[in-house]
Structure formats: structure tokens, C-alpha cells
Design brief:
single chain; 472 residues; alpha+beta; Alpha-Beta Plaits; Rossmann fold; Nuclear Transport Factor 2, Chain: A; 3 domains; 10-stranded mixed β-sheet; 15 helices
Length: 472
């Protein structure tokens, strides 16, 4: 393990007196080196199958096999040792799991603790890239619709890719500044602001970040966080839940922001139940609100902060501008051969693409399409060409795909060749479209020809010969 660079003295002094901070063990755990990775299983793609089977299939980067320990605050979350070679695992590319830091998974526990009896909620992730928390929000039974927004245009492709691989049909992606989200006045019941921060909570994962830390950077991040929150909050409905999170230890980015939300924005802090055995530190702010601190010397995770607040007030949601999206029918097409079922799904056309989503989201799509720049809407099925579907990769990644579609079951080496967009043999496979799969999980489409196949894995996502970028 690579030891972390020596922590700045100014940084350590700034943490003195914070709830849960103990300098010596904090320094010791950073001196040990990088943290253990963790993953969160995708129930859409690994339902009814043992986690042991998934872990056993992980390609080990060391000489010993990978072992897993449960993340205490999220069922389906596991810490791993040693670190697998994720980029060489077809199941990672297929979206069977997401590589996410364990502390961040506390988001799901907090939402379920406070909104456990709710369903059909409209949810927004304001600063969503690369998409880890969005994939968890999409998994929650409380979520009826999820808008994952990313301000920085160059980060939208990775957010889109991760949500497509996750496969939830209730996900939308937008590329807007938080100031534009206010036009959706009161549209959302739950808002997550995982704000850009100074990143001190990830020093063990990214030792280079140590050199970038400074009090001036903390101050800059604090001001940016207030701007994002002030501009995005109008999109949260009265009575709605705001979840604020950072991967920083600094009070200026954590408790001080919570107090500002209570004092200047009129929100009310909420408490989340936590067993003492978890090692999470509850921090009561000056306003009496509660925040939750994660220290790597106290628990199995990295530095993280989360607080939940309710937006006060009553009244109807403001009517946002809407733009009707053309609905389409499926009769007279071959969609019945592609979709497991059509009933209960709304089919629409946007920019020549046929898209599908749960039927109840049709009016929501009209509002979002008329207000923000959408980069993803539900599941893009493909394009109709002379009454027949030219399928899109989103369909292969989604639960809408007909389970009876022709499938080409690949071994590991064949799966990696498919992910590199190489030509595969298809001896005995009937001509036409087929689904390439690994361990029963779809990887994407290919088209079988006499003696060979056409590989339709997205070019931009292909596994490079030297290996794809390993997730953090």
C-alpha cells in the first residue's frame, strides 16, 4: 500500500475540537496507506444470486483471492481485500455492481430512515457525476423518478455511461447550472447536493490531493457550496428533504453550511438513527441540527459528512413550463420481440429516438423536456427503420429487454474481447441480433452473420487493449 503524504499541520490544527476527531489514530490510519475498495451490488442485475458468486468471479490483482466484508449501513455493500482488477471484470462493465466508497453508501440508509414509508418520489441529484450516489438513489423503492444533473459538460458522458450500465428505466440526465434548476420550482420531493469540496476525506484514496489542500481552497469551496444550494433549493418542494454531503472534514464545508441552511434558508435539521457499533459520529451544530461524520480510524470507510434537512412551508408546487413529447404506439412494429412487456410502459419519440419509461412518468418527461437540457430520458430503445427496431445499447442494459432474445453466452476471455469491440465467432448461431452475456448478465448487442459477428458495443466505452481506467 502507498503511504499518504504527510498531512499538513494547518489541516490537522483546523480539525482540533471537531466531534469524533482524535489526532493520533487519525494520523496513524493515513500513514498506513490507501483504503480498501468497496462495491455495491445492483439488485436489478444480480437479484436472487449470491454475493459470494459475484465476489468469487472478481479478477484478483494480487496472488490471493478477493474476500468481502458487509458494509454495516447498506445491505448489498461490501468492502474488499485485496483490490480486484475491476477494469478486467465483465460484470463491472455490465453494471452488476458499482465501485463506491463505503461511507458514501450511508446516503441510502439516511433516506430510508426518514422516508421509509414513501414511494413515487421525484428525486434530483444536483451534482451527480460520476454517478455513484445516483445509482443508489435509483435503487431505492422510494424513488419514482430520478434526475441526475451535472453542471460540467465534460463530466456528463461518464455520468450517462454509469447510469446506462446501472439499467434503471426511471433515470434522466441533465446538464444544467444549479441556477437553471430553479425553473423547476418545487418539482422535487428529495434533493441531494453532494457538493464539490476540498476533498480531504479522500486523502487516503488520492494522496495527490494532500498537496492541493489549503485554507484558501476550503474557503473557496464553502462559498461555492452556498451558491449551489441557494440556486438549487427553489426546485425542492415545501416539506421536501434536502440531503447535503461532502467528502471533506472541514467545519467550514460541513457544520457551518448546515447552520447557514437553517439560519438563512429556513430549513430544519433532521436526525438519523445510527447504532453506536457503526462508529459514525453525530455532530450537533450550533443551530441544533445534526450532521454525521465518518473517520477512517473509527469505521470501515473514508472521510465523509452528511446532513438531512427539511424545507419548511406549504402550498402547491409551481407549474413549470412543459413541452409535450410525441407518444408513439407499438402496434405494427417488432417491439414485442424486443420488450419483455409493453403494458405499463410509456413509449415516446425524441429527436428520432424511441424511448420508454414507466407509464406514470409521461407528464414528468414533458416538464423536464421543457425546462432543462436532457441528455438521457428513461431507456433509449433505438430507432425504427421500416417498422423494425435498430436497437440501442441502453435497451441491452435495461430490464425492458425481452428475456427470450437470442443470447450468446461468452466465457471470460470472449467477454473481454467483446468489450474491446473485437470480432467474435458465432458458430451455429442463427443470423440476426443477439445479446452477448457473461454469467447471465447482458453486456450488449451483436449481430450474427455467417461465420462471424458485428460487434455493437459502444465505441467510446470499449476496453482498451492495455485495460480500461480502473474506478476509484
Amino acid at each position: 500500500m502507498t503511504p499518504v503524504a504527510r498531512l499538513p499541520e494547518a489541516f490537522l490544527r483546523s480539525l482540533e475540537g471537531l466531534p469524533g476527531f482524535d489526532r493520533r489514530p487519525f494520523e496513524d490510519v493515513h500513514a498506513e496507506g490507501q483504503a480498501r475498495p468497496s462495491l455495491r451490488v445492483n439488485p436489478l442485475k444480480w437479484r436472487g444470486r449470491s454475493t459470494g458468486e459475484l465476489v468469487a468471479s472478481l479478477p484478483a490483482a494480487a496472488s490471493r483471492p478477493v474476500s468481502a466484508l458487509p458494509v454495516p449501513w447498506w445491505a448489498g455493500g461490501y468492502r474488499l481485500e485485496p483490490r480486484p482488477a475491476f477494469a478486467l471484470d465483465p460484470l463491472w462493465h455490465a453494471g452488476a455492481y458499482y465501485v463506491q466508497e463505503a461511507s458514501s453508501m450511508f446516503l441510502g440508509h439516511a433516506v430510508q430512515a426518514l422516508l421509509g414509508g414513501c414511494s413515487g418520489l421525484r428525486v434530483i441529484d444536483v451534482c451527480a457525476a460520476p454517478g455513484g450516489k445516483s445509482t443508489q438513489l435509483a435503487t431505492l423503492p422510494q424513488t419514482g423518478l430520478l434526475l441526475s444533473n451535472e453542471t460540467i459538460r465534460t463530466r456528463v458522458p461518464v455520468l450517462y455511461e454509469n447510469l446506462v450500465k446501472w439499467g434503471s428505466p426511471k433515470c434522466f440526465v441533465s446538464n444544467e447550472d444549479p441556477s437553471a434548476l430553479g425553473r423547476l420550482g418545487g418539482f422535487f420531493d428529495l434533493m441531494l447536493v453532494d457538493a464539490p469540496c476540498s476533498g480531504s476525506g479522500l486523502f487516503r484514496r488520492d494522496p495527490a490531493a494532500v498537496a492541493e489542500w489549503s485554507p484558501a481552497h476550503v474557503d473557496l469551496c464553502s462559498r461555492r457550496q452556498r451558491r449551489i444550494l441557494a440556486e438549487a433549493l427553489p426546485a425542492l418542494a415545501p416539506g421536501g428533504l434536502l440531503v447535503y454531503a461532502t467528502c471533506s472534514y472541514s467545519r467550514e464545508e460541513d457544520e457551518d453550511i448546515v447552520d447557514w441552511l437553517v439560519r438563512d434558508q429556513g430549513l430544519t435539521g433532521l436526525r438519523v438513527g445510527i447504532p453506536e457499533a457503526w462508529g459514525v459520529t453525530e455532530s450537533v451544530t450550533a443551530s441544533g441540527a445534526a450532521g454525521y461524520r465518518f473517520y477512517p480510524d473509527r469505521l470501515a470507510g473514508e472521510g465523509f459528512f452528511l446532513a438531512c434537512l427539511r424545507k419548511e412551508g406549504e402550498g402547491p408546487r409551481r407549474q413549470a413550463h412543459s413541452r409535450p413529447v410525441r407518444s408513439v404506439g407499438w402496434k405494427g412494429t417488432d417491439l414485442g420481440d424486443w420488450l419483455g412487456e409493453v403494458e405499463g410502459w410509456h413509449l415516446a419519440e425524441r429527436d428520432g429516438d424511441l424511448i420508454a419509461m414507466p407509464a406514470g412518468l409521461a407528464s414528468d418527461l414533458a416538464v423536464l423536456a421543457g425546462t432543462v437540457r436532457l441528455r438521457k430520458s428513461g431507456v433509449r430503445l433505438g430507432r425504427m427503420v421500416r417498422g423494425r427496431l435498430l436497437p440501442d445499447h441502453e435497451l441491452a442494459m435495461s430490464p425492458l429487454l425481452h428475456p427470450g432474445r437470442a443470447t450468446l453466452a461468452l466465457d471470460r476471455e470472449e467477454a473481454l474481447r467483446y468489450l474491446r469491440r473485437e470480432v467474435l465467432e458465432a458458430a451455429g448461431q442463427p443470423p440476426g441480433w443477439a445479446v452477448a452475456s457473461w454469467k447471465g448478465v447482458p453486456l450488449g448487442f451483436l449481430k450474427c452473420m455467417p461465420g462471424r459477428t458485428n460487434n455493437h458495443y459502444p465505441s467510446a466505452w470499449r476496453l482498451r487493449q492495455s485495460g480500461a481506467a480502473d474506478p476509484g
